[in-house]
Fold this sequence. Notes:
Blueprint: H1 15-42, H2 54-70, H3 78-91, H4 95-103, H5 105-120, H6 126-158, H7 164-171, H8 189-200
Amino acid sequence: FASQLPHDGGAFYTTDTMESCRQHYAAMWPPLLHAAALWLNANNFHIESDNESPTNRFHLLFGICMEALCNPRMSEPSKNMVVCLKALYTLFEGSEPRKMLMETKSLAIELCNVLHRQLLMTSESVETQQLVMEVLKQVLFAAQDHLEKTKKKTLREMVPANQEALAQQEVELLGEGGVSGELPTESSLVFAMLEECRESC
Length: 201
């Protein structure tokens, strides 16, 4: 690393070098994003030598993906969109990012809406549509994990371990819809996912 520094001292990046590499990073951000998702997923979003919180890392990568999917300039050419979807899929393979996604359910709903509006409604690429459905399945798994953990936590809080059956019926109503079974369209993850499935049929 030392051999790469300027002989006369100073910073590695100067105004000139920043400008010369700007085009490279503008073209290479999709594979860099995918690589970052792979690396962080392999480490379950925990890097020992870094004080940055896993949540911040998740929101950074998730935000870049969402911006790219919503911005036609960033998602052109179409291979950028494909790599971005692969990064999202990789992002949600781990238990930690799935948990982070469901901590704010509106993020999952917005992701479903973006996938529906920006991709399924506009893209004619079979590969893109397949990747959209794969990402949607990851969101589904995240929602299932979250619901199961919520049920177990509620059961532990409600009754002793040997009397769980007594509270089982009440726990089963913890999911969306509750007793009435109604799904508010604007705040329902189930509705957002069904919309996407309907469009893909």
